[in-house]
Amino acid sequence: MPPRFVLASRSPRRRQILELAGWPFDVQESHADETIPPGTPPDEAVQLLARRKVETVMSSFPDAYVLGADTIVVCDGRLLGKPRTEEEAFAMLRQLSGRTHDVWTGVAIALPQGSITSFAEKTAVTFWELDDEEIAAYIATGEPMDKAGAYGIQGRAALFVKRIEGDYLTVVGLPLSRTVRELRRLGWPPA
């Protein structure tokens, strides 16, 4: 019997992206610590968080491929995770207004024998200038509250985006083309 494939995420966006690969997979929410040690570079931070997610799930699926991912936004060297309050969301969106920022997504893959590999992808996103009213209206939708940098490019925040440079799906939360290539290199799907 071939090994199972497990997505260690509660994100509906990551689930939808992974479905594009056409493989059957199970979903197991990870309850990993999402604290980033101060001074950790963005590429290392997202890989660390993705690895933690995989580690919390792989013990329940020792014979499976387990995939985890994490996304952060970086502006002026400051890592922007998920806002805890509407005020914090407003401050993040104000900071991103009219500027280019980087979105990093880290991916970790656990193999059936227990080893873990990871990588990070970066996409640059430029926002139009945003006024306080459009920021407040966006926050009122509730959409920014569970997203890194307080926005979802695949949702209403698409109206804010002037330009992207890189993989759009990295910004959504899973760089699918790179992930599929890495999985193939690691033996998934099994022959």
Topology:
Blueprint: E1 5-7, H1 12-19, E2 26-27, H2 42-58, E3 65-75, E4 78-80, H3 86-96, E5 100-110, E6 116-127, H4 132-140, E7 161-165, H5 168-172, H6 176-185
Parallel strand pairs: 1-2, 1-3
Antiparallel strand pairs: 3-4, 3-5, 5-6, 6-7
Helix pairs in contact: 3-4
Question: If you had to describe this structure to a student in words, what would you say it looks like?
Answer:
The chain is an alpha/beta fold. The chain is built from 6 helices and 7 strands; from the N terminus they run βαβαββαββαβαα. Strands 1, 2, 3, 4, 5, 6 and 7 form a 7-stranded mixed beta sheet that branches. Helix 3 packs across helix 4.
* Helix percent band: 25-40%
**Individual helix count:** 6
Uncertain runs are none
Strand content: 15-25%
Instruction: Return the average pLDDT rounded to an integer.
Output: 96
Q: End-to-end distance, in Å? A: 11 Å
Tally of extended strands? 7
Rg from Cα: 17 Å
Listing every helix as H and every strand as E from the N terminus to the C terminus, the arrangement reads: EHEHEEHEEHEHH
Major sheet: 7 strands, mixed
Shape: elongated
What structural category characterises the helix and strand content?
A: alpha/beta
Short description:
The chain is of the alpha/beta class and 191 residues long. Helices cover 31% and strands 25% of the residues.
Descriptive keywords:
6 helices; 191 residues; elongated; seven-stranded mixed beta sheet; alpha/beta
